[in-house]
Amino acid sequence: MYVLVGGAGLVGLSLAQKLVELGHTVAVIDIEPNACRYAREQVGAMAFEGSAVSTEVLLEAGIRKADALVAVLRSDALNLAMVTLAKHYGVPHILSRLRHGDFAEPLRLAGANHVISTVELSVSTMVNAIEYPQVESMMHFEQGQIEVLKLAIPNNCYVVNHSLAEIAQDSRFPSGSLIIGYQPHPHEDLMIPNGSTVLEPGSTVLIATKPGSVHQVIDFIEGCQ
After folding, report:
1. How far apart are CA 197 and CA 191, in angstroms?
2. Of 25, 59, 167, 192, which one's alpha carbon is 20 to 30 angstroms from that of 79?
3. Distance CA 105, CA 115 (A)
4. SS3 call for 206
5. Rg of the chain taking only CA atoms, in angstroms
6. What is the pTM of this model?
7. Which has the closest alpha carbon to 25: 3, 47, 6, 43?
């Protein structure tokens, strides 16, 4: 994919580097010469010096052929302008960072497919780390209607050496919950399990559940034999 990133701050450069590592072609736009030089020399991205809300600069950067555009500029107003221009030039997938909640709806109306609040993400991550210290990571879907937890399987817990079919039939396993991913060992690939998959000690699972069942899922998985 050809991805344009507006803004070469910490988020923009980190995103560009990750996308380059994944094999995408990335072009960064920023008004700071040093940031552009860093993007070229250290990140391996193309860089265009100038305003990311200038039609001249955007056209030079190839906005007409971009598969995706990410606006991570220093203000919501600038991000809104860049999103509007990206929509005008027909970019199919547009993402924007959000700093202030008042801009969320304008950004969506302007054409952003995804509006991401870095503050909300940070707060949510910290709250989850405090509320559920056992959980390695947690993802929210459909405005928090579904939670997906990544949990390690302790050596002495009840579910060790039990199949997913046995676990699903256990009355203590919260209804509406489902183990959707399984990683036998840290250096092995994540796999999609089936009913005959047996959980080994030291393995990791991904579990989809409702928000109100998170504590129950954790208690069940970590319950001792």
Report:
1. 10
2. 25
3. 9
4. strand
5. 22
6. 0.69
7. 3
